[in-house]
Amino acid sequence: MASKALDTHATPMPADWRDFLALTKPRVMSLVVFTGLCGLLVAPQHIHPVLGFTAILCIALGAGAAGALNQWYEADIDAKMKRTANRPLPAGRMDRQSALHFGVGLSFFSVILMGMATNWLAAAILAASILFYVLVYTIWLKPRTPQNIVIGGAAGAFPPVIGWAAVTGDVATLPLLLFALVFLWTPPHFWALALFVKTDYAAAGIPMLPVVAGERTTRRQILIYSLPMAAAAVAPWALGLAGALYGVAAVLLTAIFLFMAAQIAFRTSGDGDLMRPEKRLFGFSILYLFLLFGALVADKLVLA
After folding, report:
1. Quick one: CA torsion of 48, 177, 62, 23, rounded to 10 degrees?
2. Backbone phi, then psi, for 171, in 5-degree steps?
3. Using one digit for the tens of pLDDT, what is the confidence trace for 129-176?
4. Alpha-carbon span 94 to 88, nearest angstrom
5. d(Cα 190, Cα 151) in Å, to the nearest integer?
6. C-alpha dihedral over 85, 87, 93, 99, to 10 degrees?
7. What is the distance between the alpha carbons of residues 201 and 221, in angstroms, rounded to a whole number?
8. Angstrom distance (rounded) from CA 302 to CA 9
9. Domains delineated in the chain
10. pLDDT for 178
């Protein structure tokens, strides 16, 4: 008999605020909020601090809404994976209808507030990012193709564009390069994770690249996608859109990223070191994006 903790159709226990917070995927949201904040701070115009705070709040709420709708749709899948089995829905602490209402409500509130507080272009991009994550990535791509992360990575690449648009009311070359950076960073980041949780994805029937193509192909793809990511990382400096501080940080951090990706690409599954290179790259990839975007903001402050 299946454990009640993994039965998404069992009568749920009363949810509390921590369960609703868990629906928003706060750890994932932190990186989304940070890149959105950086996009806002490097914009060439100024925004009132209250409106700027509201814009970042809307990005956070929109990201949380997407996370909640993702967990609503994937509750049965999450129940099959050790990594996600203790989330509110598969653990039986919340019913699916509550998660759906919470996600839809947050989506509408974040988009409308963004439009009223800043401008409707930023609101439209925020709406597009939520819809892309839920409809294109979660519902369409993720259960059907190992390219789910490649295309679906666009969902997480929108925040710096939204932050920029909230200030300026338009989209320019720099935020598009930041979009490209996060978009190209996503496959190496998630495939490194997928390599050491491959059995989870296999058990849930998710066609992640290591499951359908094997570890060796995935390791090569990590390096292949890291190369255009490196070009996107250096491009703001090369094109004169950022100064030397950012340029030095981009070159050094990206060199470390490429070295770690190469270590993974040229090793075999028989190395017997418990996926340590993959785990190191996954951890460093998060730090990489934080440091790179932080360097971009610091660079602007130096030049200001």
Report:
1. -130
2. -130, 135
3. 999 999 999 999 998 998 888 888 899 999 999 999 999 999 999 999
4. 6
5. 12
6. -130
7. 18
8. 55
9. 18-171 (1.10.357.140), 172-304 (1.20.120)
10. 98
> Which pLDDT value is given to residue 4?
41
One-letter amino acid for residue 228 of the chain? P
Distance CA 148, CA 64 (A): 20
The amino acid present at 287, given as its one-letter code, is L
Residues 299 and 246: beta-carbon distance below 8 Å: yes
Please write down the HEC assignment for all residues of the chain: CCCHHHCCCCCCCCCCHHHHHHHCCHHHHHHHHHHHHHHHHCCCCCCCHHHHHHHHHHHHHHHHHHHHHHHHHCHHHHCCCCCCCCCCCCCCCCCHHHHHHHHHHHHHHHHHHHHHHCCHHHHHHHHHHHHHHHHHHHHHHCCCCCCHHHHHCHHHHCHHHHHHHHHHCCCCHHHHHHHHHHHHHHHHHHHHHHHHCHHHHHHHCCCCHHHHHCHHHHHHHHHHHHHHHHHHHHHHHHCCCCCHHHHHHHHHHHHHHHHHHHHHHCCCHHHCCCCHHHHHHHHHHHHHHHHHHHHHHHHHHHHC
d(CA 137, CA 35) in angstroms, rounded, equals: 20
Cα separation, 104 vs 18, in Å, equals: 18
Instruction: Categorize the per-residue pLDDT at 271 as very low, low, confident or very high, splitting at 50, 70 and 90.
Output: low
92 Rama class: left (phi>0) / alpha (psi -120 to 50) / beta: left
Q: Contact at 8 Å (CB) between 250 and 234? A: yes
pLDDT in tens, 93-105: 999 999 999 999 9
Q: Looking at per-residue confidence, does 216 or 6 come out higher?
A: 216
- Residue keyed to tokens 């790179």: 292
